Amino acid sequence: LKGGATKDIPFARAESRTRVYAVASGKGGVGKSTVTVNLAVALSARGLRVGVVDADVYGFSVPRMLGVTGRPTRVADMIMPPVAQGVKVISVGMFVDGNTPVVWRGPMLHRALEQFLADVYWGDELDVLLLDLPPGTGDVAISSAQLIPTAEIIVITTPQTAAAEVAERAGAIALQTRQKVVGVVENMAGLVLPDGTRVDVFGTGGGEQVAASLSRLTGTQVPLLGSIPLDPDVREAGDVGLPVVLRDPHSPAAQALSTVADHL
Ligand code: ADP
């Protein structure tokens, strides 16, 4: 891959022990950020040192979902990231004014991501860095692969066939970037009503479909890491800034998310 890093990125060094996961999806609104923040706090609760880079330039929502109140500060030539729920967080949203839309082009996105990776003070070596990518197969996904070639990809999809097809394309980028796809997470699976009936709002099978297709494409076993039910509490937990694995750890959604974290 051309267009590598111009700065020293600790995560890209051969001796780095940080596992970097790039969380990808085919399209927006499938719960990529929700899964990212829940995995982050689940891993942090296990005593791991966790950082999150919210690189979803068009839909940054990680700060709200993690309840980040602080702002990044500058110390000498480093950027100190705010910490929320034990997780260090940096987001594109912290560098724009209010709710202004981000209109950056590829090269600017590349530089911003590079800065997040090289100039942010992540402290003692992180155990895990999660990268919330924008949906699709755009510039940021390519940049992240160039900047951290060892980053492994987690693909998020809904159970819907149409969504799964788009998610397969997002995962297939790994073939070109030679990255490993760690697995697929199906989100927004069956909604369980108070009377116990299950409604498959977005159909079924999308997660299995993406896992099977990426296994075929990459020639390696890409597992389905978990299936997270559709649950209003998941949405609400995100809205109040306390991810469901912390807010309601015994709920089926939180349990499913914790199981995904076990696989990482
Ligand atoms: P993306 O990052 O893929 O754009 P988000 O994580 O922002 O998606 O999720 C989109 C919306 O769906 C958010 O309002 C979020 O709270 C909600 N959501 C995500 N996963 C679930 C779920 N399992 N059950 C209910 N709501 C969910």
Automatic annotation (TrEMBL):
Keywords: ATP-binding, Hydrolase, Iron, Iron-sulfur, Metal-binding, Nucleotide-binding
Superkingdom of source: Bacteria
Binding-site positions, ATP: G26, K27, G28, G29, V30, G31, K32, S33
Molecular function GO terms recorded: 4 iron, 4 sulfur cluster binding; ATP binding; ATP hydrolysis activity; ATP-dependent FeS chaperone activity; metal ion binding
Cytoplasm in keyword set: no
BP GO annotations: iron-sulfur cluster assembly
Primary role: Binds and transfers iron-sulfur (Fe-S) clusters to target apoproteins. Can hydrolyze ATP.
Family assignment from sequence similarity: Belongs to the Mrp/NBP35 ATP-binding proteins family. In the C-terminal section; belongs to the Mrp/NBP35 ATP-binding proteins family.
Subunit structure, as described in the record: Homodimer.
Protein's name in the database: Iron-sulfur cluster carrier protein
Lineage of origin: Bacteria, Bacillati, Actinomycetota, Actinomycetes, Nakamurellales
Residues of the full protein shown: 94 to 357 of 377
